[in-house]
Amino acid sequence: VRRQVVEVRGFPREPCGLGVRELETGDDDTFSRTRIVYDVEYGVSAAAWVCVPHDNETPLPAVVCAHPRGPGKDELVGLVGCTPGADFATTLASRGYVTVAPDARCFGERRAHEDGLGLAGSLLGRPLVGMQVWDLLCAARYAGSRPDVNARRVGLAGMGMGALVSIM
Fold first, then answer.
1. How does DSSP assign the chain, residue by residue?
2. pTM of the full predicted structure?
C-alpha cells in the first residue's frame, strides 16, 4: 500500500499525535460524560466532551458534534442553554452513540487565548474556517481511535456555524 500525502493550503502537512488527557468525569442516567483535551497541531490543543452510553455492546457508532455560535461544547451537552435543540450530543448518547463535542477555535475554552485568530489566520493563508475543519477531522480521528467505537461508523453532525464547518 502506497501512502499518499495530500497538501491542502493552510492545513498541517502531517497530523500530530493526539496526546489525549482526561480532565473530569460526570454521570447522567443513560451515559457518562468526560471532558478531555487533545492536540490538534503541535502546540495547539482542543477541549471536548465525550459522552458514552452506559448500557452498550461495543463497538459503538460515534458522532462528532459541532456547535453553533455561542458558548461552545457546553451547549451540546446541556450544561448551558442558549439555542433550542443544541444539546443533541446528549440526545445521541442516550440513544446509543458515543459523541465527541469539541470547542471550535475561538469558542468556549478556546475563546480567550485565540482572540484575533480569524484575522491573523487569513493574513497567513490559514482561514479560521479551515482551522475549524481541521479540528473536526482531529476529533473524528480521536473518536475512531477509541476501543469502544467502530472506526468505520464515525459520523459528523453540526448546527448553525457547526453545520457549515461540518459540510466543509
1. ----PPP-TTS-SSPPP---EEEEEEE-SSEEEEEEEEEEETTEEEEEEEEEESS--SSEEEEEEE--SSS-HHHHTTSS--STT--HHHHHHHTT-EEEEEPPTTSGGGTGGGTTHHHHHHHTT--HHHHHHHHHHHHHHHHHHSTTEEEEEEEEEE-THHHHHHH-
2. 0.83
